[in-house]
């Protein structure tokens, strides 16, 4: 399998993502957005960064590039798609996943380690964990506050599509453990298909053993699990 890690102008986590996936034995390559999605891509990763300088809204411009049409088609065809941080913002802007990521409650860029709780272990992205597992992952964003209207949020809850929530180190989902003011402490949500997911914390920065913890590795292994349920 080859995961296409799509690089836009201003992406800055594309190399790290390829490196982390390769470390797990998952073949991955960077694809410049203008070159289009390779027809044999067996996965798509939208990496973190500041695509187009977060101009207008983070992810808004990248979401309107033609390659996103190809990503939407691939996603509808069951190709696994994971958006991380700026990739999560692009995913919501492109309609791959519901809701939106907007300016942190603090109105500041926040770069820190957080804890997230696995809310649903029955997704391709969380199969490596048990429900209730607490993961330590880095965040680095200024626009990571998840927002959704009541109808959308209630649907996400009832369909068990919120797969990660910010929590404290003991797994308690509290306001104090919510780094950015996200509704319901949401850190990761699924699209209409469980093979499509976005998340604000960076699993690729918590995969290589020399980078202080490997709690994120299981999330990236979702590319393998997702293909199995395709
Ligand atoms: N690390 C990132 O992907 C940065 C995310 C984003 N552009 C923000 O600051 O909100």
TrEMBL record:
GO biological process: 'de novo' IMP biosynthetic process
Keyword field: ATP-binding, Cytoplasm, Glutamine amidotransferase, Hydrolase, Ligase, Nucleotide-binding, Purine biosynthesis
Molecular function as annotated in GO: ATP binding; glutaminase activity; phosphoribosylformylglycinamidine synthase activity
One Gene Ontology cellular component annotation held by this UniProt entry: cytoplasm
EC number(s) from the headed UniProt entry: 6.3.5.3, 3.5.1.2
Cross-referenced InterPro entries: Class_I_gatase-like, PRibForGlyAmidine_synth_PurQ
Principal cellular location given in the protein's record: cytoplasm
Catalysis: reaction(s): L-glutamine + H2O = L-glutamate + NH4(+); N(2)-formyl-N(1)-(5-phospho-beta-D-ribosyl)glycinamide + L-glutamine + ATP + H2O = 2-formamido-N(1)-(5-O-phospho-beta-D-ribosyl)acetamidine + L-glutamate + ADP + phosphate + H(+)
Pathway: Purine metabolism; IMP biosynthesis via de novo pathway; 5-amino-1-(5-phospho-D-ribosyl)imidazole from N(2)-formyl-N(1)-(5-phospho-D-ribosyl)glycinamide: step 1/2
Pfam family, one: GATase_5
Superkingdom per UniProt: Archaea
Quaternary structure annotation from Swiss-Prot or TrEMBL: Part of the FGAM synthase complex composed of 1 PurL, 1 PurQ and 2 PurS subunits.
Database matches in NCBIfam families: FGAM_synth_I, PRK03619.1
HAMAP family: PurQ
Name of the featured protein: Phosphoribosylformylglycinamidine synthase subunit PurQ
Source species of the chain: Haloplanus litoreus
């Amino acid at each position: 399998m080859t995961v296409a890690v799509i690089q836009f102008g201003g992406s800055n986590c594309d190399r790290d993502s390829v490196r982390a996936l390769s470390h797990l034995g998952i073949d991955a390559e960077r694809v410049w957005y203008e070159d289009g999605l390779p027809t044999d891509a067996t996965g798509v990763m939208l990496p973190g960064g500041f695509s187009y300088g977060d101009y207008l809204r983070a992810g808004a411009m990248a979401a309107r590039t033609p390659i996103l049409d190809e990503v939407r088609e691939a996603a509808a065809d069951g190709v696994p798609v994971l958006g991380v941080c700026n990739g999560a913002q692009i995913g919501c802007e492109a309609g791959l996943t519901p809701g939106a990521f907007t300016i942190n409650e603090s109105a500041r860029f926040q770069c820190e380690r957080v804890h997230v709780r696995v809310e649903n272990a029955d997704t391709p992205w969380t199969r490596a964990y048990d429900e209730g597992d607490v993961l330590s992952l880095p965040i680095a964003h200024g626009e990571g506050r998840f927002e959704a209207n009541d109808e959308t949020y209630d649907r996400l809850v009832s369909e068990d599509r919120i797969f990660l929530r910010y929590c404290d180190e003991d797994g308690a989902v509290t306001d104090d453990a919510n780094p950015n003011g996200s509704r319901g402490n949401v850190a990761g949500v699924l699209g209409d298909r469980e093979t499509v997911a976005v998340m604000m914390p960076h699993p690729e920065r918590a995969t290589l053993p020399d980078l202080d913890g490997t709690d994120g590795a299981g999330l990236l292994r979702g590319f393998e699990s997702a293909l199995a349920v395709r």
